[in-house]
Specification:
single chain, alpha/beta, 35% helix, binds iron/sulfur cluster
Length: 279
């Protein structure tokens, strides 16, 4: 089972467009959408949910005022200032440490599991998709990413295709850990180059083989060349240059991959060529 993670330094570089197109090309694979904070692969793959599971990231405390004797001990011990006078617990500030639950002399504090999101196993026209939805303002996206990647490994396949989270934080680390190959999608802007430098530092730290695709390379040739020379200096191969093409948006509006929309278009042929390099 080969695990290929597609990531970018930030959102909006075309990472999901490329992942969806590759999903249509790769046989016998599971696709995992690890962009759990802003998942959008489902917009193209149109999944039919087969399994739905709750994601329990932590526990949260709440006060039963009928039992509370207002001694104030819980407020004294909460390091996160989550308990105000009343007493009342702010569920957003509560970090789930459980200290108040343990010190309350009257058993007035409940400490219950908090559902922070859901994850799904779905059918798509390209095979199974494991994806998730994290609740608004919920944290622990790294844990959720690890969980859905584990779920994907339970499904028998030759490849796992991972649409990684953008950036370089905890969810990205969870997206690439244990991957056999990372494909970084970048765009020819100075911020794109800056983000690429950070991402390559990260994959280098984890010693994961990394290749680069410059998307919309033709919107700024000077920056494309800067990206390519940076990659050369790091011995990172640029395996593809994809042209800017309005077809990408048209395909997305029609819930299709670019290859499904027009397999003869240059961008479609370049993505197919890219797959022949990395498979
Ligand atoms: S420690 Fe228990 S009894 Fe005391 S104020 Fe807090 S909830 Fe009420
Ligand atoms: S569980 Fe911890 S963080 Fe939450 S209210 Fe109690 S002491 Fe504060």
């Amino acid at each position: 089972m080969k695990q290929i993670a597609i990531i970018s330094g930030k959102g909006g570089t075309g990472k999901t467009t490329i992942t969806a197109a590759l999903a249509g090309l790769i046989k016998n694979k599971v696709v995992v959408d690890c962009d759990v904070d802003a998942a959008d692969l489902h917009l193209i793959l149109n999944p039919k949910i087969q399994e739905k599971h709750d994601f329990v990231a932590s526990k949260v405390a709440s006060i039963n005022l009928e039992k509370c004797k207002k001694c104030g001990k819980c407020r004294e011990v909460c390091r996160f200032d989550a308990i105000s006078k009343g007493p009342k617990i702010d569920p957003v500030s509560c970090e789930g440490c459980g200290v108040c639950f343990r010190v309350c002399p009257n058993g007035a504090i409940d400490f219950e599991e908090k559902i922070s999101g859901q994850y799904f196993v779905s059918d798509t026209r390209f095979g199974p998709l494991v994806h998730a939805k994290l609740g608004i303002a919920e944290e622990n996206s790294g844990r959720l990413v690890s969980l859905i990647r584990k779920k994907a490994r339970e499904i028998s396949s030759d490849y796992i295709l991972i649409d990684g989270s953008p950036g370089i934080g905890c969810p990205v680390i969870a997206s690439i850990t244990g991957a056999d190959l990372v494909l970084v999608v970048t765009e020819p802007t100075l911020s794109g180059l800056h983000d690429l430098e950070r991402v390559i530092q990260l994959t280098g730290h984890f010693k994961i083989k990394t290749v680069v695709c410059v998307n919309k390379y033709d919107i700024n040739m000077e920056n494309t060349e800067k990206i390519e020379s940076f990659c050369k200096s790091k011995s990172i191969e640029v395996i593809s240059r994809l042209p800017y093409d309005k077809l990408v948006n048209k395909a997305m509006i029609n819930e299709k991959t670019v290859i499904e929309y027009d397999q003869e278009a240059l961008i479609s042929r370049e993505i197919s060529k890219m797959w022949s390099v990395i498979q």
